[in-house]
Amino acid sequence: MVAATLCGDxxxxxxxxxxxxxxxxxxxxxxxxxxxxxxxxxxTRLGFAVLLKFFQFMGCFPRHAGEVPAAVVEHxxxxxGVPHQRWPEYSWHGRTIEYxxxxxxxLLGFREATVADSAALTVxxxxxxxxxxxxxxxxxxxxxxQCRARKIEPPAADRIERLVHSAIHAYDxxxxxxxxxxxxPDTRPRLSGLLLPSRVAxxxxxxxxxxxxxxYAPTPVPPAWKPWSRNWINWTASADCSCP
Length: 244
Description:
Helices cover 57% and strands 2% of the residues. By secondary structure, the chain is mostly helical. Strands 1-2 form a two-stranded parallel sheet.
């Protein structure tokens, strides 16, 4: 079972209702995991166990208690011998939860993301823009899965958002550069001239958009392509394009 959205990004990312067999499969503590909670008590014991199973299932930690379904808390609480009503007592700030997170990362072989990881993930994301298009949510999911494959705890949701948009922008810049390098040298000055304000007519740019431009550009133009789109508008106006 795979999460539908990124942890901490929008509404709770996992299903809220769980069948008994699903709880047994995904949320049952193994013997080695039971030993880890043996020296903890009360809400601390329950909180550690929930964080552990959540990370195993999602590949990231919950940001707050509300992200964990009540059925999951009750199932884990029964295993560690702590009333599920004590779940709200677990503190989401301070040394205890930071220590728990470090223990869980070490147990599962994960580590926190570094600056070098962010740079490497941005390069990897650039390669995914082609197959995934510019669908931000799909790229976020691909990034989450890549973090799991690399045993890296995913960055915060806002950081993931920036990484995805940075990769899309870099991909567009690289594509435009590749296209430009394929243009014959003697043609480049004329194309560069199209970046200047149109000298064809005084009408606003929107009035120069011909039917052929509308047909060839049915979707929003990526930011890095806007100069090229303006070139096309100027070209069609100056060439008096008359597509059907």
